[in-house]
Structure formats: C-alpha cells, structure tokens
Amino acid sequence: MTAPAKPRRRRTRTWVTVGIALLAILGAAALTALLTSPRSGGLLDGDSTSADGAHALVSLLREQGVQVHLAGTVAEAADAAGPDTLLVVAQTRYLPAADLLARLADVDADLLLIQPSSPTRELLAPGVQRDHRPARTQPNCELRAARQAGTIDLRSATTFRALDDPRDFSSCYGGAVVRYHDGDRVITVVGASEFLQNGALTDAGNAALAMNLAGEQPRLVWYAPQRPEDDGAGSATVFQMIPQRVYWIVGQLIVVVALLALWQGRRLGPLVAERLPVVVRASETVEGRGRLYRSRRARDRAADALRAAARQRLLPRLGLTRTAGPDQILGALAAQTAMPPGHLEHLLYGPVPSGDEDLQALAHALDDIERKVAHP
C-alpha cells in the first residue's frame, strides 16, 4: 500500500518546487522592472527616457542651472509658476479640458505651448491662430533663440499667424515658432514637439532650439500630464488612474508565467543570459555633451562649465572651502603658482572666449594651472 504514495509525494515535491520557483521569478521580475527598466512614460514626460520622452532636455537644463519643476496637475503648475518663470504646457492626450486648464491663462509667468490643440491655443494664446502655410527649415526671423539654432527640419509642424495685431509679434520657420507679448508676459507657441524629444534631441539644431526656448528663465515649470486629472466630478476611471509602469510590469509577469509554463511542458534547452543595459563610458558622455554645446554654439556655457569645474577641483588642493570667494582663490593660487593674479583672474573669471580656438586655449590653460598646483 506504500508504493503508490511515492509517485504522489514526488509529484507534490515537484509542484512545491515549481511554486517556489514561480514566486522567486515573479519577485525578481518585479524588482528588476522597478530598479533597472528604462523609465517609460508618455509624450514629453520629463522623467521618461523613452524616445518620445523629455528626460534628456530636462537633465541638460538642470545642468545649466535652470530650476526645473515637473508638475503633474494644473493646480501644481499654477502654484509653481510665478515671476522669472517659464511655464511649458505640452499637448498630451491627458491635457485637461478648458474649464480646468483656464487656471493657467492668468499665471504670472511666461508661456511656452508645445504643439497645442485649437482649444488649448485659443485659451492660453489667444493672440495667434492656425495658419495653413508649410513650415520652413530656416528661421528667417530676429528671434535670438531661433537664429542661434539655425536650420531645423520642422516641415511637418503646424504653423500659426497673428490673430489681430499682438505686440512684438515674431514668426520663425514659416510660422512653426511664433512669439508675442501679452502685457508683461511673453507667450511662445511651437507647432512641433519632435525636436524636444530624447530620440531627436541630438539632430542638427534641435538641442539648440530646445534649450534656447526652454532655458530663457531661471525657473521652469514643465507641465506635460501623463494621466487624467480628475476635475472633481469623478470623470477619471480607476484604470485611467493606474500608472503606465504598472501595465508594463504586469506584461512582464505574464511573459514570465508563459515561459515557465512552456518550460514545464517541454524542455527547450538551457536558458540564455540576457545582456544588461550597456554602461556608457564617461568619455562618450563628455564628447556627446561637447557636441551638444557645439551644435548650440554655446561657448559661454562651455567656458562657465570649464571654469566652475576647475575651481571646484582646485579648492581642496589649496586648502580652501567651497565658500571661498574669488579673492581668496586668486590669492592662494598666486602664492602657490607664482603666476600674476591678473592673469589668473582672466583665466578663472574672465570674459567669454570669442571662438572655438580661444575656448580650447582656455581649457589647456586651466589644465596647466591644475598641474602646477598638484605638482608645485
């Protein structure tokens, strides 16, 4: 009577093992999805690293000293906007209706509308209307942000023109980028969003135009809603309120369960190790950032970055704290390197280089100062 019990116990142990393995795989998959997966998101999501996200632009703006606030609701965007602030409103599928969006019409901040729909444009930029002319690749305007960017492929963009006669109206790229003044505010309307996205930011001129338009104020409020906003009437469903990442994780778990079922049903051979995301070398990051600066012709920001980095590296070697002022730094450097204080001040706090050769010479000179301090 004990013989039939052995196969039963064997099957029980097998299913227990399978259950434990399933739980372990599900837990590992969920943890991996949360910790190592790309931060997916919708169109122009400031936290998204997907091709249509805007994480790269937001990161570059923060590196340039712009205080970027990612707003998730109209109320949050309105509260964060104020003087010396640029409010970016991107047209996503979750942009709320006019009755809720109307709160942004009177904020005390400049506005940048990205590919707005007709209701959004009529509410937030009443001084312009849609045009039917094709966009152009050349700026052909006096707007500094566009002239510095140069040639950009905006041929698929929506174009706009002045509705009446708004003050200081500018039209660039055949109307794909327009700007006018509304009282003390500057309102800019752009008929395309591709040049702001991660996947196209490195194309010729895109980074220059994106950073010039979005970086004109010291503070930036980025409003590109990625989920419905309840207007108080309970219009958003439970499924609409679930973050997109949850759906991605559930999809991964379904795949894991399906693979486990196939593994139990039929032997398919050994598992193949999946390659982890590639780690980008620091040199490639520096070169890429340099190309972005060069495409934007941003010698001023490049020089500021070189000088600031050199000063930060010199402070501990000179025995100074981060709060040390220019006079303390120049005095300590002059004493240790025997270089004239005036020459040191020109290198560390001087004017913007006039050309790429002068910028390269500045980099070499700063490197020489660091070597002299490190090896007196």
Give your account of this protein's structure.
- This protein has 3 domains: 5-36 and 239-265, no CATH class; 55-223, no CATH class; 298-374, no CATH class.
- It is 46% helix and 12% strand.
- The protein has 14 helices and 9 strands.
- The chain has helices spanning 5-35, 55-63, 74-80, 98-101, 118-124, 144-149, 206-214, 238-241, 244-265, 282-296, 299-318, 326-337, 341-349, 356-374, and strands at residues 67-71, 85-90, 110-114, 128-131, 159-162, 167-172, 177-182, 185-190, 219-223.
- A 7-stranded mixed beta sheet has the order 1-9-2-3-8-7-6.
- It is flat and about 85 Å long.
Order of helices and strands: HHEHEHEHEHEEEEHEHHHHHHH
* Shape, principal axes of CA atoms: flat
Mean pLDDT: 82
Kindly report how far apart the N and C termini lie. 91 Å
State the low-pLDDT regions, or none.
Answer: none
Q: Which class of secondary structure composition applies to the elements?
A: alpha/beta
Protein name: DUF4350 domain-containing protein
Pfam family, one: DUF4350
Organism: Mycolicibacterium fallax
Domain DUF4350: 47-213
Index terms:
376 residues, alpha/beta, 7-stranded mixed β-sheet, 9 strands, 46% helix, 12% strand, DUF4350, DUF4350 domain-containing protein, TonB_box_CS
